[in-house]
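Entry for Z5A complex. Fields follow.
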Amino acid sequence: MTGLFITFEGIEGAGKTTQIRLLQDHLLSQGKRVFTTREPGGDPVAEALRAVVLAADAPVTPTAELLVFLAARAQHAERVLRPRLQAEAIVLCDRYIDSTVAYQGYARGHDLAWVRRLNDFATGSLTPALTILLDLPVECGLSRQSDRNRMEAESRDFHHRVRMGYLSEARLFPERFRVVDAARSVEAIHADILKAVQEAIRSAG
Ligand code: Z5A
């Protein structure tokens, strides 16, 4: 695998979409080959699964929810992520394995070791070189929301567990995570992300 795999994580309204767009523009202006994608989604089958799990108006059980996110990821990893990385692109992905650990593991209560193993199974252990965690208080993130999907309608306590889960993962895997304070201006956050990405590009050689 010769590309560079970078993922973006954070609670709702953390600014992932905004920052990915800015980073993509910057990298393209430097002549880099860049591909942007998201989870759940990024492929027709995975987008269909996204609609099932996020827009369902009937109850979805926690186990079904976990397995749909993983099914979408398995499809995305094999059909999109691996080919793009093999084509030497810098791949920017909005949410990936750590979303499942934070939402379905820490917040919903599925066993963390089990969720990590399922992530490995779904992706063939395809792990990002760099994960940018955009961290901010739950109140701040929720106040930036415009429309609400099924997950976003969860309680504040649920979103707080998600945030704490992410921070725990960042402490567990410091070689991969960079935690960025996302309660600041768009420009200040972008500057920190650029530093982390430039370092990752240098390390990738
Ligand atoms: N999910 C899961 O449970 N398990 C999994 O394995 C996976 C996902 C993969 C996907 O939702 C949901 O699926 C997500 C987790 C769950 N659930 N929730 N909730 P999504 O893709 O529809 O939504 P999202 O990923 O949470 O994105 P978002 O809410 O759109 O947030 P964002 O992309 O991080 O932020 P943004 O769109 O860039 O910015 C939001 C607003 O804030 C917008 O108006 C911006 O102009 C504004 N903004 C951005 N940055 C700033 C700053 N710095 N200051 C002020 N305002 C800002």
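NOTE: Residues 10, 12-18, 39-40, 54, 69, 95, 99-100, 103-104, 144-145, 149, 151-152, 185-186, 189 surround Z5A (CB under 6 Å).
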